[in-house]
């Protein structure tokens, strides 16, 4: 999803969002200026599949670095619960899936 206030003809997606179709609520995690998330990966809670986490790899164009951010799936508007710096850059086109053990 595009961040608020950006020229969509000049920018790639800079946020991830979750739309709750029953309530019409849209939760948004804005990565910040010049930061670009990969496609988010949903990780269900083992005891409650309706709750879980969203993982995304974020490329930071300000520092030419990447990190993994983990969000509570029902609280994207809050800070990530974890940020893991990566030793090298992962391009914004990264895709993945979650497979429980």
- How far is the N terminus from the C terminus? 31 Å
Extract low-pLDDT stretches: none
Average of pLDDT = 86
Tell me the radius of gyration: 14 Å
Order of helices and strands: EEEEEEE
The share of residues in extended strands comes to 35-45%
Number of helices: 0
Give the helix/strand class: mainly beta
**Count of DSSP E strands?**
7
Gross morphology? globular
Relative helix content: under 10%
Could you give a short account of the major beta sheet? 5 strands, antiparallel
Structural domain tally:
1
Account of the 3D structure:
With 101 residues, the protein is mostly beta strands. It is 0% helix and 40% strand. The protein is built from no helices and seven strands. A hairpin with a 4-residue loop joins strand 5 and strand 6. The N and C termini lie far apart (31 Å). The model has no long low-confidence stretch (mean pLDDT 86).
Key traits:
101 residues, mainly beta, single chain, 7 strands, two-stranded antiparallel sheet
Task: Map the helices and strands.
Layout: E1 15-20, E2 25-30, E3 35-37, E4 41-44, E5 52-60, E6 65-72, E7 82-85
Antiparallel strand pairs: 1-2, 3-5, 4-5, 5-6, 6-7
In short:
The protein is mostly beta strands. Helices cover 0% and strands 40% of the residues. The model has no long low-confidence stretch (mean pLDDT 86).
């Amino acid at each position: 999803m595009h961040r608020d206030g950006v020229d969509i003809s000049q920018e790639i997606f800079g946020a991830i969002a979750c739309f709750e179709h029953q309530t019409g609520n849209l939760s948004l995690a804005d990565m910040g200026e010049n930061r670009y998330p990969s496609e988010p990966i949903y990780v269900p809670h083992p005891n409650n599949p309706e709750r879980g986490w969203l993982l995304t790899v974020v490329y930071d164009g300000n520092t030419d670095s990447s990190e993994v951010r983990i969000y509570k799936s029902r609280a994207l508007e809050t800070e990530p619960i974890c940020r893991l710096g990566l030793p090298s850059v992962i391009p914004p086109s990264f895709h993945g899936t979650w497979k429980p053990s």
